[in-house]
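Checklist before submission:
- one chain only
- standard amino acids only
- sequence pasted in full

Submission:
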Amino acid sequence: MITKMTTENVVNPGKLLLASLGLLLVTACTTTPPAEEYEYEYGSPADRLRPDYAPDGSVGPLSDGPIAEPTPKVEAKSGLGNPPYYEVDGVVYHVKDSGDGYKDVGVASWYGQKFHGRRTSSGEVYDMYQFTAAHKTLPLPSYARVTNLDNGQSVIVKINDRGPFKKNRIIDLSYAASKKLGYQAQGTARVEVEVLASPRNAGQVNSAQLAQAGELELPPMEEQKDNAQLFVQVGAFADPLRADTLAARLRDHFGQPISTSSVDVNGQKLLRVRIGPLRDARTAENILRQLNEYNFGTPKVVTE
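Returned file contents:
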């Protein structure tokens, strides 16, 4: 449901920098079109209006493995499909930091052969015979139990996609999951969605964990000058336009000085984009946490 054009080393979830950098282009329900040609431009409103349909027997499962409900487990957030927010047809959706404790009741729909074999928002390939689902705001991947409130049937699904974007619907199940819940014929059902496992909220990671993970590594003292200044280097670019654009956007969203400086690396001139000088290591740690929360780039602490 989301196409993501990657740029390195950019994010500020606290102030929604990711979306403002234009890294995401929202399309229909998946990230990559299938091999066949389409009458309409892929991802256009006209393409999204093309009808979906149940399996017609022309395609089978994409995996030779068993088709079974997934086992809930806490996974790292996928590199795709987890912006702070995104927009579809003029509506802005804010992605949750974590799905822990999430439970909601609403209308479920399903999606089928039209999307079979396409890339989901998380980058996985959609297989209508597997037990998966799409949700507008839960972090990807999450695992949830979905219960049909009309007949009591339930199914565990892996949420790896974005949607549904029709009004008053809270979740889109794969065709297989909707069939297990018994509503594939009528198309929708009133369900309860309860998250069983979800990526952890990065904001809950403490300083010791960050240091242990190597996300806050100050240069050795012998490499630091007296009264050295502390910076977070967000990226280094050969293209001056990319460096200047990133610096400008960072200035809009951080209450810290943003600078670019030239450096020669193995004969190549690069422009470094830095946040700072910073007051102390705790400030650098907070900035690193924001930049790393959505796994964009490899920012690091530097001194000079």
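Reviewer check: The first strand starts at residue 2 and ends at 4.
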